[in-house]
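Supplementary notes (optional reading)

For those who missed the lab, this is the record we used. Protein: Methionine aminopeptidase 2. Length: 453 residues.
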Amino acid sequence: MGGTNAEVVQEAAHDMKKLDIAENETTQETAAKEIRESKLSNSNGTVMVSQTPQNDDEVAQSDGTALDGLAESAKKKKKKSRAKKKKEPLEQTDPPTIPVDELFPSAEFPEGEIQQYKDDNLWRTTSEEKRELERLQKPMYNTIRRAAEVHRQVRKYMRSILKPGMLMIDLCETLENMVRRLIKENGLQAGIAFPTGCSLNWVAAHWTPNSGDRTVLQYDDVMKLDFGTHVDGHIVDCAFTVAFNPMFNPLLEASREATNTGVKEAGIDVRLCDVGAAIQEVMESYEVEINGKVFQVKSVRNLNGHSIGPYQIHAGKSVPIVKGGEQTKMEEGEFFAIETFASTGKGYVREDLECSHYMKNFDVGHIPLRLPRAKQLLATINKQFSTLAFCRRYLDRLGETKYLMALKNLCDAGIVQPYPPLCDVKGSYVSQFEHTILLRPTCKEVISRGDDY
Ligand SMILES: [Co+2]
């Protein structure tokens, strides 16, 4: 556990010397600030033409007799332009700062990609009974679409700033702060659904830096950016992979296409094992050449997609990504995270490295605790995260200190579950793509679909 981790930290420290990260970051922040300021002055500039006294003076100089009339018309223009301004839909800034609910004054958020059911379920498309069922669910659909819109906007921005040399911790904090702002974080009503996964290379999932980690993103890294947003506990679980070196493109393509295949196969009354078989077939049709060696891409056989419930990231059903899975069927109204992992390694992960992810056990009731420190930490977890996953950094920012022993007590008592990083063999590479889908009564909605993936 510790050994591999120490190595990662050492490598990162080494790379820090080559790149002046601090300066790099500052430049980026300054650039962002400049963009904001220039936008601000642009909009001010437009308003100034019609309403500043300075401008009136200029006009008055050329025709003194018309001064009064001009002043009056300027007043009218002022009113007019204000009223007009209010009606114009807001545009997102760059970097994004405007909460998405302010960008959609109608409070109707964009629908995801609609896919029709096929074969035995074609009738659902036009069924009046099923359409009526959907009308009742519309407010809930709109709620999760708001979370999806935040996901799309945040990932679009992250893609634009991701560069080799960035500190992983800065990357995560930028992303998380942006989610908080765009979703208007509000206790358990809206916010981050789980820690920002940014697992690198042979680490497939569940890695995010703990405080003090100095890992730096490298040109030859394969990073899975897996983050979640939620509104009222309706979770959008969606991920993509970033690689700067184009040699990894076929590996990324394999998991992207495999995930799209899983999304396409999913449907009401579809057996989970059939989805897994279809995914594996597409996944393993890919090969990738890495530094002169050719690998047939493998589906990671012990990783799965999953059903999602309110405040419950894994609601009980697993969506396999290889053949031979369960015969259990998908059902009307269910949410699923369809995620696939492509690997050049064994296609099998095990727990390794320092743990960062934790989550309260969904079914655990009230367990009386005697240890005051553990009791206090549990109160924080209940209030801040409830049954949503969290990481050590989220406790740190809430002002919790020296909580590791208390956290261990909660894990030992079965109240909290640790989720350590999941790793394929060292030196291998894993890519991932993931979407959240909803099996609506009349059609399938790919809630998190964007123009990127
Ligand atoms: Co997931």
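If you only remember one thing from this example: Residues 1-85 have pLDDT under 50 and may be disordered.
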